[in-house]
Amino acid sequence: MNDSSANTIRWKSGLWHNNAALVQLLGLCPLLAVSNTAINGVALGLATLVTLVVSNTIVSATRHWLIYEVRIPVFVLLISGIVTTIGMLMNAFSYELYLQLGIFIPLIITNCTILARAEAFASRNTVAQSFLDGVSHGVGFALVLIVMGAIRELLGTGTLFSQSDLLFGTLIGEEPLMAFENYRGLLVAVLPPGAFIVLGLLIAGKNLLEQRKHPQHKESVSSEI
Amino acid sequence: MSAKQVSMRDAARLGCYALVTGLVLLLANRFTASTIHRNELQHLNATLTEVLPDSYIDNMLQAKKVAVPDKNRDQSLTVYRGYLNQKPSAVVIQTTAPEGYSGSIDLLIGLTYDGVVTGVRVVKHTETPGLGDDIEIKKSDWILSFNGKGLNSPVNWKVKRDGGDFDQFTGATITPRAVVHEVHQTVEWYKEHRQQIFDRQ
Question: Torsion angle of alpha carbons B176, B181, B183, B184, nearest 10°?
Fold first, then answer.
């Protein structure tokens, strides 16, 4: 297997076949809690992506030094250290956003995706491959977070990317995109039940696409980690 | 290696990771602490200015912070005292409405020396999005309806459904009721404690 086809497999695995949120159902705690607006999704998605890439890289770089019996505490230690550092940096350099997301940042530690990638991939593969694995799984998770946030915000309040100034300054305008005028809002979408319903629909949609593509499979099968 | 030696080796390795992680956190904290502190002060300052416009005072509110005991609750209230030409001119009181729909609502209330509201802002709350969160200035200008009310004129401190002066929200009465009640309580508390507030060092 040459490099480029291995890279393609990494990308497909993270974005689709082993997507952390839609297939492995890992990281549900931050996924369900923070996907109430699109901009929250973007912010937490980016923070998770950075954490995952840094964690994968460090774990992979020190993998020959790891002792099998104590690897899990070491992973947890590294991940919480990385997340705490990111939280401090956000608090210092993106304070408005930190006010909005601050209480959710420690939630990234509870995202099992990061531990799972450290254990299943980074501790057994080269730094370059682990880096790519972190990027693809991080992007895959972030995309689901953003799509869920966008759907819930659109249904719940009729806006899209409101408060984007917290993240992008005035880059894309202060006013949110109004999808419908005088929309009364579907409250359940921004409440916790809405998170479960939208996630369920997304998973169902993915499985439907898989079945269309491979009609012989009754269920989507994923053996590649 | 004996079992004991293996354990020692594992513990030492884990300790090394812990040491390095701790060191990184220490550096990150050193590096960011002053910026974070400045951010927090700026944020507090901006919120204080929102409830008490600069024209009322000529001192730094944060420098005149005082905790005044309140007999009705366990904690004391935090009060920021404002002065104009060395004379007491205004206060900002930090308080909590305990009876929101889903928990307590933290408020900042600005008052002139005579007990007239210059502004109220919700600092923290967990009310239902889309229903109760109209108490936020970002969502609705309802919170501005307190401005100019206070000890100068008779006010019926209730929501309209209870026969008072303040609007409730469609589908949410408990949240605005709690805020109106707390602002009223605070204004009354200020009337009784004004002397004590400005006498303290």
Answer: 140
Shared domain for B124 and B57, answered yes or no, is yes
Confidence of residue A218 (pLDDT cuts 50, 70, 90): low
Tell me which of B34, B50, B66 is where a domain ends.
B50
Name the token pair of B58.
Answer: 């000529």
A81/B14 Cβ within 8 A: no
Where in chain B does DSSP place strands (E)? 65-69, 76-84, 87-100, 103-112, 117-124
* Number of compact structural domains in chain B: 2
Phi-psi group of B171: left, alpha or beta (phi > 0 → left; psi -120 to 50 → alpha; rest → beta): left
CB contacts, 8 Å: B131 with chain A: 187
Residues B43 and B62 placed together within one structural domain of the fold: no
Q: Do B72 and B160 reside in the same domain of the chain?
A: yes
| B31/B94 same-domain check | no
Looking at residue A177, its pLDDT comes to 61
pTM here is: 0.74
Of B10, B14, B25, the CB nearest to A81: B25
Say if residue B84 is in the same domain as residue B96. yes
Looking at chain B from residue 40 to 59, which residues have their Cβ under 8 Å from any Cβ of chain A? 43
Say whether A70 and B14 touch across the interface (CB within 8 A): yes
Together in a domain, B134 and B91 = yes
Q: Which residues contact B44 (CB under 8 A, 6 or more apart)?
A: B62
Residue A40 pLDDT > 60, yes or no? yes
Domain that holds residue B126: 52-199
Pair B33, B116 in one domain: no
pLDDT, mean over chain A: 82
From A88's Cα to the closest Cα of chain B, the distance in A is 7
**pLDDT at residue B72, rounded to an integer:** 72
Interface list for B 114-133 with A (CB within 8 A): 128-131
**Which pLDDT does position B147 carry in this prediction?**
92
